[in-house]
Every structure is written in C-alpha cells, then in structure tokens.
Amino acid sequence: MKLSGLLAVFLLLCTFRRGFGISHPKPSCRYPPSQWCRSLEIAIECKVQKQCMEVNATRPNRAVPPVSVTLYYESLCPACRVFISQQLFPTWTMLQDIMTVTLVPYGNAKELPSANSPFACQHGEPECRGNMIEACIIQLTGDSALHIIYCMESAADVLAAAQPCLQLYAPSVSWSSVDSCVKGGMGYQLMHANAVMTRALNPAHTHVPWVTFNGEYTEENEDKAMSSLFHLVCQLYKGVKPPACTGAPVRLDRSFC
Hints:
Blueprint (H helix, E strand, L loop, with lengths): L4 H14 L21 H6 L3 H9 L9 E7 L4 H18 L3 E7 L4 E2 L7 E2 L4 H17 L3 H9 L4 H12 L5 H9 L1 H15 L10 E4 L5 H18 L6 H4 L11
Parallel strand pairs: 1-2
Antiparallel strand pairs: 1-5, 3-4
Helix pairs in contact: 4-6, 4-10, 5-6, 5-7, 5-8, 5-9, 6-7, 8-9
EC number: 1.8.-.-
InterPro entries: Interferon-induced_GILT, SAP_A
Enzyme class: oxidoreductase
C-alpha cells in the first residue's frame, strides 16, 4: 500500500476543516491515515473509499519502474536526521507512487570481534541501540516503517520517541516484539546484514547520509538530493510525470462551503 501525495493533501484539508467544526469527512477507525487505502475493507471502515478511488485513478503507469532511493545513515547523526525530516519523508509523502525507499541504519559503525559489544558507533552506544531499534522496526512494520523512522528522527529524543512512534503508526505491532528483536539474535543479524550492505558500496561511502539512486551513487546526484530531493526524483523518473512534479491541475470532485 502506498499513500499518494493527493491523499496526503486530502488528509491535511480534513484536519484543517475539523478545526472549524466541519464534520466532513470524520473517519473513525483503528487504522492510522497511512493505512487508509491499503485495502477496500479498510477504506470502507475509515469512510474514505471515494477518496482512495480518486487517488488510484491518478497514479502513474506501473509498467515504468519507480526511482529506487536507498539511504545509508546513522540514527543519531544530526545531518541524517535533517535529511530524513526535511528531504526524504516530505518527498516520499508527495512522490511515493514513483519512488521506493530503502533505509539502512549503520553508517560509520564498525563490527567488532566481541560477543558482548559487537558494534561500535560514531556517536556512541546510544546510537548503536538506535540503529538496532530502527533496523528491527523496519523489519517488523513493513509499509509503516518510514513513518515511524521519520517520527523518531524528527523528535527531540530519538530513542525515547521509538515506542510512542511505533504505537502511533503501527498499533498492531507490539513494543515487546521490537524489544525482543533488539535483545535477541534477530537484531544482531539485521545489523550484520546492514554492515554487509554498507561495506559493499562502490564507491565506498565516506560520510553519511549517503544516498544511492537505482543502486548508483554520484556526487552530482548527492548534491541535488541535499538541496531538493523532490526535484531530483521527478527528474529521474522515466514515466509520465505525476501532477506533483509538473504542477498540472487535477480535477477532483470536491464540495466547499
């Protein structure tokens, strides 16, 4: 399931209108907004089936592959947190129909030959724990992962935000399952896999955030991504550009007061 930029705008409008006492629409369901168009059953329960049908009708041609964006980062790296909160998540919110995002929390960490402390991180032990928490969340929550990671990385305290962000965006996933992953073998396996992916980068990464597009890294694309990831994704997409990229108006059925 992907929530398009049009639906995101619709949700913002709904929130704005409710502030003025307008009750249309007022979804009351147990799913967060990111899940509303995941299935027809959920859309009906949340009373947004009409809006989801409109969104589906404007989605790009699925025969054209989306732009693949992979972010190699560290959970407590200030520059990574800024990139996730100010570039990656806002861009994905508007362009997720033409892009996919893969998150690899590891960065400049090192694997150590120690059973008690198998990783050393640039920003200390809290970052190692943050990396593993986020790796477990990515593994356990699927489509909701980017919402949760954004929620954590944009918070004042990344680690303290983990549990409430999980409850907000993936209420069906218990914190105990994440905690078990972090304290058990799965967390270490996930971090080792991230270490292998990071070490395999060609060219090798020299800093984070390190971003690849369709599996490739160039300094030119990195410079563009840091200044406007949105425009870069629009530029790299080979299919017909969605309205968000072109600024073309889309006529949808709306009522106003």
